[in-house]
Amino acid sequence: DQQVKQNSPSLSVQEGRISILNCDYTNSMFDYFLWYKKYPAEGPTFLISISSIKDKNEDGRFTVFLNKSAKHLSLHIVPSQPGDSAVYFCAASEKNTGFQKLVFGTGTRLLVSP
Amino acid sequence: GAGVSQSPSNKVTEKGKDVELRCDPISGHTALYWYRQSLGQGLEFLIYFQGNSAPDKSGLPSDRFSAERTGGSVSTLTIQRTQQEDSAVYLCASSTWTGSSYGYTFGSGTRLTVV
Predict the structure, then answer these.
(1) What is the mean pLDDT of each run of 10 residues along chain B (115 residues)?
(2) Of A6, A43, A107, the CB nearest to B107
């Protein structure tokens, strides 16, 4: 049972345009959401997060939107740069686990072409 | 250390052999996690340590998998009688409370190939 789903395995975008990566979840107990970025042969690195009390969080070129009623979140990258080419993982956790056990999606591979 | 260190970075083993994977977390991080990523899959939770105890082992796939953590620091994940389906990248992360969330830092992983 995949509680966090990233239905697009890959996305190609031109440099300077917007990249939109999507994530859906099924567990209504999730209350904290994160995006991680992974380059080949490296561990995932934290990108941006959002709490369920918010619907938007912005950090430079990266913005995460949360739609709780639809159980959907998205990551917007504007403008996209070639260095953004990586695999992006959506992750979620629920407060009552007592610790931040993260449930990850399967990832979306983003390719930004010059 | 400055980051989470995992060794070996790559391991090829024969089916049926035992393997040990090591994780050296960031100094002072009390929480340590093991995940694995199989080909085409997301990151699958295996086990979590708080200090030396493991409150949640629910992700360990079978009793061939075990993990320990000593001195609240280094952790070892052991896979006995390895099978081909154990082939994956095994990732370790450590975390500490930032005041608003737990900041996870991942190591680069150990790529295990069972032949």
Answers:
(1) 89 98 93 91 90 88 95 94 97 81 85 97
(2) A43
